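Subject line: Sequence and fold of a protein, written as structure tokens
Enclosed: The protein record, placed directly beneath this head.
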Amino acid sequence: MISFGKYQYKAACEQYSDCQAGEHEGYAIVGKERFGRKACVLKDVTVSRDCADLMARIMNNNQVDLCQMQDVTEDLLATLKS
């Protein structure tokens, strides 16, 4: 999905391997400033592509500032789990 606002967010599929969770496919949320150099990546946010896409769409629609990206993601995950 393309956003025409100042910030653009998208879900990214990644393969993870760590000692606690083992090998698994997960989704990161990538945010970037459209006309700047700022970017932020929250790795291994969820294992659900639908959930990751929904979070990116909500952040695009609300033009969440990059500095608020982690807080908004945590709040969205808590809401989606309820």
